[in-house]
Amino acid sequence: MHDLARRLRRLPPSCGPVRLVGVDGHAGSGKSTFAARLAGALGGAPVLRLDDVATHDELFDWTGRLLSGVVEPLSRGTSASYSPYDWRTRRPGAGVRTLPPAPVVLVEGVGAGRRALRPHLALLLWMDLPYEESWARGRARDGAEQREFWDGWTAAERRHFAADPSRPFADALVRQIPGGYEVLPGPGATPHGRPGVTEGDGSSALR
Predict the structure, then answer these.
(1) pLDDT tens profile 91-118
(2) Hey, what domains does the chain have and what are their CATH numbers?
(3) 111 vs 17, 149, 180, 183, 206, CA distance in Å?
């Protein structure tokens, strides 16, 4: 991931001193795994998981809380604090997490590239896996006990992306390939475009 990490470090700050990078895609598309690997390549960059912000009652209606609780503090160069939602007990968790204004902060989850957040992003990455395959992977991962939740989730995700799509604004598309990831210019890239990069677990090369 090191070539991509170097590119991100060279971007101008987008949220106060922070380069806020969104990792969006359908549920089950591999956002969490990719973001964790990218964070490691960035030397331990902080990662905000939108699963910690959303709730059963507000699967996608968390924009105000994200802007006031996370974006505004980071834009001032101060740490943000939040209580991760507990999906089992259906209430905020007891602990508080701190998100420091690091040079690069990753925001991963469905809706990370939403309209209200894009002005604060230095770059938007889209996990380019079709929703049918993404949802099938997610359902297989979570098992039969989450079948009812997934039925409700897929309907909510369809509505969200119909009203507020992310992929058309993505600067880069991320595709999983054997041994790593391929990063290609996205629909929202600048007119001059950004070079595609093949990101492996070892070396990477410009395409």
Answers:
(1) 887 789 999 999 999 999 999 999 999 9
(2) 2-206 (3.40.50.300)
(3) 23, 18, 24, 20, 29
